[in-house]
Structure formats: structure tokens, C-alpha cells
């Protein structure tokens, strides 16, 4: 497993379980992926009765905030297959991507503090188009412990362990249009 995860590097001072790799893909593939994502029937993010400013498309599964449960979504598009294979090859031996979320952040759009739903296991995020400040926080007594990762275009991060389960994350308003593709495994529900 150490050889497989050597692909990722832990950033000094970052939350345990947060790993990062710069230049995960080449610029030509980045342009191709942006073209694919921008051609999707992206819809405003729905959070129950509220509508977010970012636009999304879910594949495999989507979380329904009104019903509070996972719902089936369209199958994962074939154009993501090689990229998923590359991510799965570098994850733990059991890595199996089951859900993909494609997101478009227009200039001035971000995402508030949250943790991904517990139905999901490891989270892999590919940044496209422009960089963003990927912020983390967790309660530390009466104060917050904070960390910010500068997620560069074409980079990939992975969240597991504490970074995934204890820390919240957010993205402040982006300065230029940004796309992301989030790849999720399903949580191991042995209990």
C-alpha cells in the first residue's frame, strides 16, 4: 500500500488523511475534461428548498437533501473511465469509485463549510480551470484549528481518515471560473 500511496504527498501541517499531488493530469486532458463537463446538463445545486450558485451533475449516485438519502443517478460517463482507472490504481487495493460529481464554479462562487455525506468513503477531487483555496477547519476547544491547501489546476487531492471524518472543508468565492470532478468510494458499512 505504501508504494501505491507514494503517488500522493502529505502536505506539512495538513489534516491527517489529506494527501495531494500536483500536475495529476496534462493540460491537454484538462481542456478535454472541461469541455466534457461544460457540455453536461449542469443544474444548480439543490439543498432541499435552497438552490446553490454552483452547477452540478451527479453520476452513479446523488444525495437527495429532501429525502435525506442516496438516490440512483445516471451511469458514470465512459469518458471518465480512464481517469477513474488511474485514480483507482493509486488508491488502496480496495479503491472502487462509485460516485462522481462534476461541478462548475463561476467567478465569485464558492461552497460553505461541510463534510461529505457519511455514505461515502474516500474522496478524490480533481481541480480544473483555475486554482482555489481549499480550506479545512475543526473545533479545538473554544477556537478553530484551520488549514488551507492551494488546490492548483490539474491537481488531485484525497481525503480519508480525520481529513474526511473530523475536519470540515469549504471553498471561498473563486476568482476565475473553476471546474472540479469529485470521485467518491462508498463507505465500508461493516457495523
Automatic annotation (TrEMBL):
GO molecular function terms attached to this record: demethylase activity; oxidoreductase activity
InterPro entries from the UniProt entry: AlkB-like, AlkB-like_sf, ALKBH4, Oxoglu/Fe-dep_dioxygenase_dom
N-terminal signal peptide: none
All copies of domain Fe2OG dioxygenase, residue ranges: 96-187
PROSITE patterns associated with the record: FE2OG_OXY
An annotated GO BP: demethylation
Highest taxon, organism lineage: Bacteria
SUPFAM superfamilies in alphabetical order: Clavaminate synthase-like
Name of this protein: 2OG-Fe(II) oxygenase
Native organism: Bradyrhizobium icense
Organism taxonomic ancestry: Bacteria, Pseudomonadati, Pseudomonadota, Alphaproteobacteria, Hyphomicrobiales
